[in-house]
């Protein structure tokens, strides 16, 4: 299996998360968006049911746009056995939609058969690396395709971690051949909450591993940042995005907005801004060396 | 990086974090009293033996328990919001405080075991019917059941439409003996409570309280189905409900007709059935027909 690298997927451009309040607008107006990312579970139906109306809509959107499937429940870091029933339903969805690639998160969402429906953090240890490697290889084998995994926002870290998050991600990517989805907002949120330098994080991820980038908004609370996806991308994150595309090239980038969802035109405006930064990056790439002068 | 030899295994850590995040009392109370002995669903309140709090890094800005509290709050808020969205009428009848207590108690008995957050409310109607706090509101369980069936209808398999010319090509004998398939997104509900205003309640943000719910002297039948992507609820006449119910359970047309005539004493029932029948075919409620075990479709 071959990783979907940033180099191969560069032409995909800027996408937007597909959310139900925008279904009618997208189907009726065909906005100029390069691709959509759909949350896999929203189209896999309930346990005993088929997918119903949502899958009908996704198939209609698919007629006009490339789709990336992005999951939230693979729970690849859970100590539980891999959920093959879930994977089988994901495979059926993949067969129906033929996505550009399939992604999920480096996290656990539940244990002992219970699901917390949240992206829970992992300790960055050799034990975790081995555990993830085994499960990712099994999942990729089952789906017969390399997967792409996203870094999550974290509000805590573990004292017994043996490596940094970026070293951890690099190990996973190297041992499994999976791609990385670098959520720049998550990097920033975690960097503030855990007091590390986000530029060190981004600079340590090799270009060849990065398949996709996420951009989203967060909320500033009294003592930390919360990854709420309920507002525009912050200026700090836009700055970091500038660095990310300097480092990785014009990787396919997605604007995520999950709560207090605005009119589609607001998302389009965010995607236009990302596109402009990519165009600028392309010019700079041709014009001068790639030495970064970025600071946050 | 600090490396502690006695660090919890991944398994111990995840079990502990699940407990601390889902304990309904919140992180601080859970840490204060990690081994209570007198509560229902005790396992939800009892810490795994390993205490992993020391393994969560903290600093001056935010200590470990506050960091865990972010996850605990997000857990409950996310599930509560999902339930509010799936059971909007039940939520409006109960109000914020009672609904929160209901969901908190519900999650103790029915923690999510599904990968789709939209499925966590599956057991709520049954839970409400056995929930002591709501014994004085017996209409709530059927109301919540109706809301749940709307979700199932939304996610149920898509079907194509039955070509009416197939029906007209059948002989009277074949038609009478035929078995019909009803759409998977069709749900039939019989209620002792009037739910006639259900659609209005769903679509308008009216305040709803118990005075809207009066027990009926005779049960009423309701149909839930999906048309043009929208799930709708409508009241059915008693014979209409009976016939759809019989057809759904696999009874053939002649047998259904005979049963209906015996029960409803209506000499005109045959022609009414045929009128309804064609309407149900037109709407996709009946989508397939099998004649003498040979499937004729589409």
Task: Describe this protein's structure.
The complex is a heterodimer of chains A (296) and B (298). Chain A has helices at residues 6-9, 23-29, 52-62, 84-97, 126-143, 165-176, 184-194, 198-204, 235-248, 264-287, and strands at residues 14-17, 35-39, 67-70, 102-105, 108-111, 114-120, 148-150, 179-183, 210-215, 219-220, 225-226, 253-255. Chain A is α/β, with parallel strands linked by helices and 296 residues long. Chain A has ten helices and twelve strands. Chain B has 298 residues and is an alpha+beta fold. Chain B contains twelve helices and six strands. The N and C termini of chain B lie far apart (66 Å). Classes of the chains: A alpha/beta (296), B alpha+beta (298). Chains A and B meet through helix 3, strand 5, strand 6 and helix 5 of A and helix 1, helix 3 and helix 6 of B.
Q: Brief description of this entry?
A:
The complex is a heterodimer of chains A (296) and B (298). With 296 residues, chain A is α/β, with parallel strands linked by helices.
Measured between the Cα atoms of the first and last residue of chain B, the distance is: 66 Å
| Percentage of residues in DSSP E strands of chain B | 5-15%
Query: What composes the largest sheet of chain B?
Result: 3 strands, antiparallel
CATH class of the largest domain in chain B: Alpha Beta
Total strand segments of chain A: 12
Could you tell me the strand content of chain A as a percent range? 15-25%
Question: CATH architecture of the largest domain in chain B, please?
Answer: Alpha-Beta Complex
Which spans of chain B of ≥5 residues are poorly predicted at pLDDT below 50? Answer: none
Topology:
The complex is a heterodimer of chains A (296) and B (298).
Chain A: H1 6-9, E1 14-17, H2 23-29, E2 35-39, H3 52-62, E3 67-70, H4 84-97, E4 102-105, E5 108-111, E6 114-120, H5 126-143, E7 148-150, H6 165-176, E8 179-183, H7 184-194, H8 198-204, E9 210-215, E10 219-220, E11 225-226, H9 235-248, E12 253-255, H10 264-287
Parallel strand pairs in A: 1-2, 1-12, 2-3, 3-4, 4-7, 7-8, 8-9, 9-12
Antiparallel strand pairs in A: 5-6, 10-11
Chain B: H1 10-22, H2 27-32, H3 64-86, H4 88-109, H5 124-129, H6 140-155, H7 164-169, H8 172-177, E1 179-182, E2 187-193, H9 198-203, E3 215-227, E4 230-236, H10 238-248, H11 253-264, H12 269-282, E5 286-291, E6 294-296
Antiparallel strand pairs in B: 1-5, 2-3, 3-4, 5-6
